[in-house]
Amino acid sequence: MxxxxxxxxxxxxxxRDLTLSPDGSTLVSASFDYSAVIWQAPDITExxxxxxxxxxxxxxxxxxxxxxxxxxxxxxxxxxxxQTVLGDDDPQPVILxxxxxxxxxxxxxxxxxxxxxASWDGSIGIWPLDDGLAAAADRSRxxxxxxxxxxxxxxxxxxxxxxxxGYDGQIRKWRLxxxxxxxxxxxxxxxxxxxxxxxxxxxxxxGSSDGTMNIERxxxxxxxxxxxxxxxxxxxxxxxxxxxMLAFGNAKGRVVVINTADWSIVRxxxxxxxxxxxxxIMPDGKSLVVAGLDDFITRWELFEFPPEFLERxxxxxxxxxxxxxxxxxxxxxxxxxxxxTLSPDGRRRAGPTLFGVFGRMAGTLEGYPYSxxxxxxxxxxxxxxxxxxxxxxxxxxxxxxxxPIQRMKNAQDxxxxxxxxxMATKESIxx
Length: 431
Known about the structure:
By secondary structure, the chain is mostly beta strands.
């Protein structure tokens, strides 16, 4: 039987976004592990890794001419990478600051002169690029009007307007010249997670937190198509060049590909054992690449497997183990394994390896870029300090750390986790 999918591993954490260069020669994946990986397409061969962000990278976009790559993430910063540096051993970006919360989406205007950013601080950033990248931050401005986080942005084809989607369930249209709010092209009762607008064909497509995949007329809101799983949020959308096909992905791994010529469903299948955070249809229209909670990205050949090929492809993921394991190992899988590994090399993860962690002073593992809070810490990791880390929280035990704020209220869960870690790290050392 023909292999229906291929997996490509380069990250050490969940992959949050995918983007293709305009000529289809380069694919970029943005990850929770603080990095963006440059892949040669269409064969998807790893070319380089961009390290600069100080937190998860949520989104990446190429400029229309392919000369500039923009990445942004949880650190609230935008990194601009000229195409000429992407192959360098140590590429240096131009950094734009101004947002006060995580950035989750980026968009370039069709002429490449403007970059827009959507942030959970409730604002839309407008960054002029026509006077040099370094001047973009000084010339930036911010549009506010959504009630809550902004999830997506897109410029109009004429460059005079901007569309944005938010937690408030609306897709709003703004006049770029002065930031004037014009109207809401969608008023949804649930948060709009993702959207794509095709002005030429009078179409707005969007995914909602209530699980619906919606396609409507941009001009008057007339429903064209509506499908989805009840209460399974839609997290990804992609319109192929010319919008010949639309693809949606949801929080349970479902991917739906739609032919926009006749609104027929090309494929409706389960592509992952967890959320689909990003989907890209390759330029040949015969395959798509999906990304989500796993460390790898997956390419599916759209026409080389039957619809019933797999109900839930792949092994049980480490984040939600289903095999009979101890409670301590289960807590590690759920709370720690996204950022940490137990192996000596540590792989590419957002946090340092826990190999040999007991008895190690915080901030001393060679080769890991610790925050100043950990470098200045005098904590030694042992049963007591690890238990306290999850009891009081990283923000209390190690204030200023990059570690996500999380606590474990159940004392037995903390004890079981510490017991597992002590055993697992000791076993790793013995091996």
